[in-house]
Amino acid sequence: MKKIFMSLKKVYINTDIIGKILFAVIVLFAILGDGFKFYQKFFWWDLLLHFVAGICFVSIGLGIAKCVPNLKLKHMLFFAFLFALSLHVFWELFEFICDLLFDLNMQRWHYDPHLPDTYGRIITERTPGVIDTMTDFIANISGAFLMCIGYLLKNRYSKRSIK
């Protein structure tokens, strides 16, 4: 029981600061996105949000993976990458459920002449929300992948400089 508690404590310590950063990013994006209408002003705002989320989600996954003793770097990165993708899937499901239950337009299914799509054009009935969802996935995967590559390079170069 003590071993489980210590592992959970490590997960909390490793992910606590990252969680706070993620919370700040979400609040900042919500305030800027909805409050200051960045979603309407900048077509790339939604993509930036999902790109940054991919980076943050990998960071949280790495914090969890670091708690597993003797885990190789490639396995940590593989877990963190899949963890990020899983969290993004849940986010897209959240958007879908909110659209259904509260008649929102998080996945851009409804025509809104003031809301640009992720390509900078106005959404029409011929460019449904699936484009928004897929570009969100691409942005999230890109952020997660670049974070994994950056973490891998950081660890490789820091090991070389020690020798």
Protein described:
The protein has 163 residues and is mainly alpha-helical. The chain has one domain. It contains five helices and no strands. Helix 1 runs antiparallel to helix 3 (45-65), helix 3 crosses helix 5 (129-162) and helix 4 (73-102) runs antiparallel to helix 5. The chain is elongated. The mean pLDDT is 80.
User: How many angstroms separate the termini?
Assistant: 39 Å
Average of the residue pLDDT scores: 80
Structural class by sheet pairing and helices: mainly alpha
Could you tell me the radius of gyration in angstroms? 18 Å
Shape: elongated
Q: Report the major sheet.
A: none
Measured as a percent range, the helix fraction is: over 70%
- Summed up, the helix count is 5
Percentage of residues in strands:
under 5%
Quick take:
The protein has helices at 2-35, 38-41, 45-65, 73-102, 129-162. The chain has 163 residues and is mainly α. Helix 3 (45-65) crosses helix 5 (129-162).
List keywords for this structure.
163 residues, mainly alpha, 5 helices, 0% strand, elongated
Q: What is the topological layout?
A:
Blueprint: H1 2-35, H2 38-41, H3 45-65, H4 73-102, H5 129-162
Helix pairs in contact: 1-3, 3-4, 3-5, 4-5
